[in-house]
Amino acid sequence: MTKKRLLIYGDIEMDILLITESTETDIYDVKVDDVSFSPGGSAANCAAIAGSLGQPVTFLGSIGSDSWTAPLMQDFRKFKVNARHLKKSEGKTGTCVAIVNAAGERSFHSYRGVNESDPPDMPTQTLLKNHHCLHLSGYSFQQPNSRKTAWSLLQEAKRNGLAVSLDPSHLFSKQSGSEMDALIAKLDFIFPNVDEAINLTGEQDPVKAARNLRGRGAKIVLVTLGSEGCLLSTNEREQFINMNPIEKVVDTTGAGDAFCGGFLTGWLRGLDIHQASKVGCASAAHIVARMGAHAHAPTLTDVNEVLMHNHELELVNLLRKMS
Which fold has domain 6-12+41-92+114-322? Predict the structure, then answer.
């Protein structure tokens, strides 16, 4: 049986991780205890997670002509992400400084570079028809150039019968108006975290926020809830799902992206949305126990270990048959 293919559009960047044991947020000078460089970008993280899990995935985006280019391309090859349609630009590659505190929480300072200034060309109809789901990042809707590309891709995807999913960003979730409503109405899946769900709807309760998004046309809403897992909300069911990590949480960077990559991989392989949600939670549980957004992306074996730790033996056996 031919595997269903995932098409992802969004940012690729280099993350600079500054790790501090400080828990203070209002001081002028913070001591940094360690620094590391890690490939990132919300959409690129999702692609790497899916690729590491064995999902055929194609990435659309732009990369600059600077010192970040080679390691980012090597990273995509490592996780078997098809980057043949990645646009090579003369500008600067996106860069994000992420500050990770003692609790593993993080704040981002992002420079989008060519992700915004020189977005990729539209793919051919043949490429679109060879894929089954288009995943978009909210970052792509934040500024004019990439927003135009994201909207065009969404419309072409719908025209060609692809499912469409969206992972909102914090700034994106603060937007409102008729364009936002038109976008939400076209989504098969939306993956806000709890703060983004509140921003998008004004509802403080994640259940009510999910119902609001479904009322505006989104078919399936999955609100990620950090250590509490996720809320799966459809017309037929509302259910909280959680997977306890095997190891201590050290860095929550990329947890939401890992959830998206795990969920979409499970769903494209034929799991129902409840089972796919568990794969998403297990992928996130693996990521948060390691530094970096996807440098240690889970394999299917890693996901199965988390599922076994949570006594999901039936799902483990099902995934083994699918691999």
Answer: UDP-N-acetylmuramoyl-L-alanine:D-glutamate ligase (3.40.1190)
